[in-house]
Amino acid sequence: MKIVSRILFVMLLFLAIAHTGWASQIADLPPGQPITLPEVDSLIGQIAQFMLVASVLIAVIMIVWSGITYMYAGSDATKVSEAQTRLKNATIGAAIVLGVGVIINTVAGIVTRGFFCRFQVLGICIIN
After folding, report:
1. What domain range includes position 84?
2. Which parts of the chain span the membrane according to its record (predicted)?
């Protein structure tokens, strides 16, 4: 419990320093262009897309690996059971990842109002 309270104290101290403006004085950052909302949106979209692709790739690798393990298990009941468990877990993981992808794309479509567009031409909503 002491470790958790120390970690929370350090985090709150860091947030307090960052919020008061001391962070810019400590870091001695040069003035620059502010980050705009479209840039943040693009960055979040790229990170989400990368995570989804990487997760689906890992899920496919796990499914293939469990299939190969199942084929080479032969009559060993322990290896067969491990391969079946791995296949079940990989399938559940893939379903969760694809479900999260659907949720992210739906929320992004609602936020950008592209979800309610019935007909688009070159990314421009023609009929709402």
Report:
1. 46-128
2. 47-73, 94-116
